[in-house]
UniProtKB/TrEMBL annotation:
One of its GO terms (molecular function) is transcription cis-regulatory region binding. Residues 2-116 form the Response regulatory domain. Residues 124-218 form the OmpR/PhoB-type domain. The modification 4-aspartylphosphate is found at D51. It comes from Serratia inhibens. GO terms for biological process: regulation of DNA-templated transcription. It comes from the Bacteria. This is DNA-binding response regulator. Residues 124-218 bind DNA. GO terms for cellular component: cytosol; protein-DNA complex.
Amino acid sequence: MNILLVEDDLQLGKALCRALELAGFNLCWVRLLHDAQDKLSQRSFDLMLLDLTLPDGDGLTRLVEWRAAGQNIPIIILTARDRIESLVNSLDSGADDFLAKPFALPELISRVKAVNRRMAGFASQTWSLGNLYLDPMNHQVTLEDELLLLSKKEYRLLHELMRCAGTVVRKAALEQRLFGNGDCVESNSLEVHMHNLRRKIGKERIITVRGIGYLLKKETQG
């Protein structure tokens, strides 16, 4: 899970990076809203942790702008503003959750996991689509109660498609999840992994949207 942390406090930022990385998340930390915008334009993230009081602007104002522009990344607000009105206003402006500073790190990690599950459309620890189940905690996938042996990249691919089930995931976003930004990727590498994944879970489950990306169907016939 790739997280964009927008926090200007050096001590808190370092502590959050350490705790979240130990919990198994990938962190990208910036201290300005301008830098956050640059990162969002360069790559995709699964979730943002956003401070509201930043040196180059108000996080809540920028949140409203992002939502108006169609940016749908899940966002958890981290704020020292302890008034109930301010926190509720964060939700009304498009935040998915909030935590008032100071907060306990285990609570933050729990909130991050909960928002990720909620945004994926699943209410339990195990994600399911028909007879296909994915356990993100144990990195296991089962089909009709049979454990599937997926490669690391096949698992990452299914995880991303299942997290966004019912919507088209762009090819560039899938390539970034599988290969990162710095790897040299052959032109057909994604298609090869997609072919292998389809063979294992059923080719009818994944629809190719030509020129855009792929869609994992929420329902299958039969």
